[in-house]
Amino acid sequence: MTDDVLPLHEPVFGGREWEYLGQCLETGWVSSAGPFVEQFERAVAECVGRAHAVATVNGTAALHVTLVGLGVGPGDVVLVPALTFIAPINAVLYRGAEVRFLDCQADTLGLDPAAVSNYLSSRTSRGQDGFCRETGAGRRVACCLPVHVCGHPVDVDPILLACGEHGVPVVEDASEALGSQYKGRPAGGLGLAGTFSFNGNKIVTGGGGGAVVTDDEALARRLRHLTTQAKSDPLLSRHDEVGFNYRLPNLNAAVALAGIERLEELVRAKRAVGRWYREELAGVAGVDLFQETAWARSNQWLQVVFVAPDRRDRIINRLRGEGIQVRPLWFPCHRQTTMGLIDPPDLPVTEDLVSRGINLPSSPHLSRSDVARVAAGLRRALREVGGGGPGGTQ
Fold first, then answer.
1. Mean pLDDT score, 8-26
2. Would you say the C-alpha torsion 359, 362, 368, 373 has a positive or negative sign?
3. Alpha carbon 176 to chain centroid distance?
4. Alpha-carbon distance 311 to 314, whole Å?
5. Which of 30, 179, 219, 294 has the maximal Cβ count within 10 Å?
6. Mind listing the pLDDT tens digit for each residue in 210-219?
7. Residues 6 or more apart in contact with residue 228 via CB below 8 angstroms
8. Phi and psi angles of residue 164, each rounded to the nearest 5 degrees, phi first
9. What are phi and psi for residue 380, nearest 5 degrees?
10. Which domains does the chain have, with CATH numbers?
């Protein structure tokens, strides 16, 4: 980026990336086999406190193959939040399953445990086969897929409790939450499985990449099998089921491993950025900065502010015109045209947050003066569009 543009999120490389890449090139291990893939898997598993990690080419592949491993398929439904990047929704649709959109919590941005509990209690029952099924159509509730949004952990424990009572496995999409903690436990390491992304805009990047973590040895073994084209006999190229070319290349694993080695340093840097934003925007009328809950330690992947919905787009345009790359929160997934929902569910919290939310530049290398520049631009934009009262209750 040019010096006068502040990007939304840039990667930071300051560890052993060149050393590790040099080893890949010197040895010729540049593709989906090589020592850094296994080292990366061990590092991810240790970071999240799980017994196993399976590397994948990206976070969406991690979600997809996990659903395959759990047997999710046509005729099933998966519980998902509508406030998320589209990847977990697509992963469900890849399997031919249906999504059931639920609302989120304003204080976490994540899936609302009450919505999960209410759905399971009022709309499902245990079938004769022991599975949790929707009343009426009888579709199996095959999985609950909460997403840790912008790095802030979902309130996972009550979701695990409700799903456990109904026999529904929980898979966390922790793509944005590497290094975040929920009540002192690593995000992504709480359900049956958790998935991560190492895309270029994540706190740790390999230029690409993903991973699935789990304590379930049988599931990990199956996922490793599926991600390497389901080879039952590599020498004779025999395959015992439909597999996927989802194994992470050694080059990407090398870069990501160097980042994982510096994870705590990166989390501290991003949390400092969040603290500076809170200080710079304290008392500014018309804007509310999202705050982490008392039980969370967010990696603060992306900072979020809330403004009045009738001013949001004008504020975004003005900031971008100053070379400050901001963006709205994602378009709500239940209203995406690809879903084809004639009568989308009423999700008032999601709709409210989406109408008011703006992501601010959040790169870990930002200086205090960079943050001050964004805050000053935001204050100017608020004045130019008419200011007004608080943007919400965050």
1. 95
2. negative
3. 4
4. 5
5. 179
6. 999 999 999 9
7. 32, 243, 246, 247
8. -60, -40
9. -60, -45
10. 17-260 (3.40.640.10), 263-384 (3.90.1150.10)
Rounded (10°) angle between helices 113-123 and 156-166 = 10
pLDDT digits (tens, 9 = 90+) for 116-128: 999 999 999 998 8
Backbone torsion region of residue 159, taken as left when φ is above 0, otherwise alpha when ψ lies between -120 and 50, otherwise beta: alpha
Report residue 354: phi and psi, to 5°. -65, -35
Cα(323)–Cα(365) distance, integer angstroms: 17
Report the C-alpha gap between 110 and 310 in whole angstroms. 24
Token pair of 107, please? 């204080």
Q: In what order do the strands lie in the sheet with 288-289?
A: 288-289, 303-306, 357-360, 327-328
DSSP code of residue 342: S
| DSSP per position, 84-122 | S-SHHHHHHHHTT-EEEEE-B-TTTSSB-HHHHHHHHHH
* Mean pLDDT value across residues 260-280: 98
- Residue 155 phi, psi dihedral angles, 5° rounding: -75, 90
Largest Cα span, the chain: 70
Cβ contact 381:287 at 8 Å: no
Residues of 209-248 as b/e, b for ≥16 C-beta within 10 angstroms? Answer: bbbbbbebeebbebbbbbbbbeeeeeeeeeeeeebbebbb
332 Cβ partners below 8 Å, 6+ apart? 82, 83, 347, 350, 351, 354
The token pair at 182 is: 């929920």
Strands 52-56 and 210-214: antiparallel
When pLDDT is cut at 50, 70 and 90, the band that residue 194 belongs to is very high
Nearest to 201 by CA among 319, 90, 364, 346: 364
Asked whether residue 389 carries a pLDDT value surpassing 60, the answer given is no
Q: Which alpha helices (H) appear in the chain, and where do they start and end?
A: 17-27, 35-48, 59-69, 87-94, 113-123, 156-166, 217-227, 250-260, 263-281, 312-321, 348-356, 368-384
pTM for the full model? 0.94
Cβ atoms < 10 Å from Cβ of 389: 8
Q: What distances in angstroms separate CA 122 from CA 116, 131, 134, one per listed residue?
A: 10, 16, 9
